[in-house]
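Pilot study result, target chain (192 residues):
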Amino acid sequence: EDSSHHKHDDDDDGHNSDIHTNNDSDTANISNDKLFQVCLYRGDPLIDNPADFIKSLVKSGHHVQVCPRLQITTFGIGLCVKERNGSWTNLPLAFFLSSGFQDEVTGRGAMTCMPHGGIDLNITSGPLISQASIQHYVAIEGLCGWHSNHNPNVPWLRPTQCREEPWKGDRAVQAVRLAGLVAVVTNTLATE
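Predicted structure:
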C-alpha cells in the first residue's frame, strides 16, 4: 500500500474501512478539485464532496440528521466574574444590532442580539461513526463551511431548531449539497 492509503481494522460487519487521501507527493497528476478523497470501505468509489460522503454514510446504515438552527451569537465564556465563594459566573458577550425601531416616548432605539444561524448535522449511530456533531456556518474568521459543533455550556445559549423534525435520508443529503453550494459561492465572493 502507498502512503496515501490508510487501512483500518475490520468494522463490525467484517469490512475493511479505508481512508484515501491524496498527499503532496500524489498531486502531480491530479487536478486541484481532487486533492482530498475518502472511501468508506475497500473497493468503494472515492468520495470528494460532503454530500456524497453523507449519502454513503446513510447507505451504509448510519443515522444522519440535518436541521437548521438559530441561537444568540455568543463569544464563549470570555467575560467571567469571580464570586465570593470562589466560583465563576459567565457573563454573555454578544453583538447587538439596531432593529430600526425606537421607543415613541423616549426615542431610544430598540436593540436586538445578533443571531447565529447554521445547519446542524448529527450522526447518532452507525457502523463506522457512532456519534458526531458538526455545523455549517460562516465563522468569525471568514470561512463558510463545516465546523465542529461545540458550544459553551452557558445558561443564555439555548439553540432553537428551525424545523419540528430534522431532515433524514435523501433530504439530509440534499441539505448538505445546498450547504456546499452556499459555501462555494460565499467563499469565492469573499476571496474575490
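One observation from the pilot: The radius of gyration is 22 Å. A full batch analysis is planned for the follow-on phase.
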